[in-house]
Amino acid sequence: MNEGDARVPHWARQRERGSFALMKLTAFGLRRLGRRPMTPVLYLIVLYFFVFGRRARRNVRQYQDYLAAWSGRRELRPRLRSVFGQFMAFGDSLLDRLEVWRGSLPLSEVQLHDPSGMCARLLKSAHGGRGEILIGTHLGNLDVCRALAELGEQVPLNVLVHTKHVAHFNRLQNAAGDHQLRLLQVSEMDAALMLELSQRLDQGEWLAIAGDRVPLHDGRRVAVDFLGHPAQFPQGPWLLAGLLRCPVNLMCCLKIDGRYQIHLEPFIDAPEWERSQREALIKSWVQRYANRLAQWCLLAPQQWFNFHAYWQSSDLSQSSGETDAHPRRAAP
Questions:
Q1: Structural domain total, the chain
Q2: Which domain holds residue 244?
Q3: Considering the entire predicted model, what is its pTM?
């Protein structure tokens, strides 16, 4: 999203159209009734957001259009069914998330793709080794990756999130029955925060942070190519890795054929830089991350859960009063 366009609110400022109350109701119902009776409620919630989320529908179409053009797969071009399908996939992931918080989605139901042996490093951390950084994404269901803690004999996994959303997540987790997830508020990377994170790594704890959301008050961002168009990505995760001199790994969790698959990949062994090279080096890392993210999108095209305006685009009006249609595609 173009920061200079004042007509479109940042994703973190956009009004959550009654979402927390609906999610809390879903969490309560799931705990009391189970998943099957809550399925009709899920459909109603998703339908509500689909009908009234005009901007979100437009952004989903833009993503599907860009993915289809970038990949050359015409079957991925946006249609009414595919746009609604992406909303439904998000609703399904919400129920899965609540089940994860309740502890009812065990590791045995999750398939791991770990060709580099990262799980062995988790075990090493549990016995005195130093922790590492996991860069996640809002493609798929990041919460399912909590199952990784079981591999390392309950190695603490600290999830770094933006201040605005911590209270909502904590309340939802408590409603779902989970009181163990460790969320750390990250508003800015000051000396106190860096010291705390360094100590956690030294204690064998791991840090997880999303690499595809630009925070509200952090001006450190970089534009790279994503699905054939310039998009803004945060520099924060990569600055964090360089300052902590900590190995960086990529993490993505996709639901394929009804089963979650966690993909773990090493990314940077020893992030460090000369001061004059920092900006260029970080941009190269972010571009590599965006390239890998694009490839993952093809594995589960409808599990892209960034519903806000993501790309810088001069030909797509960002005004809420404009038509929903992208100039190169018909509105559903």
A1: 1
A2: 19-303
A3: 0.81
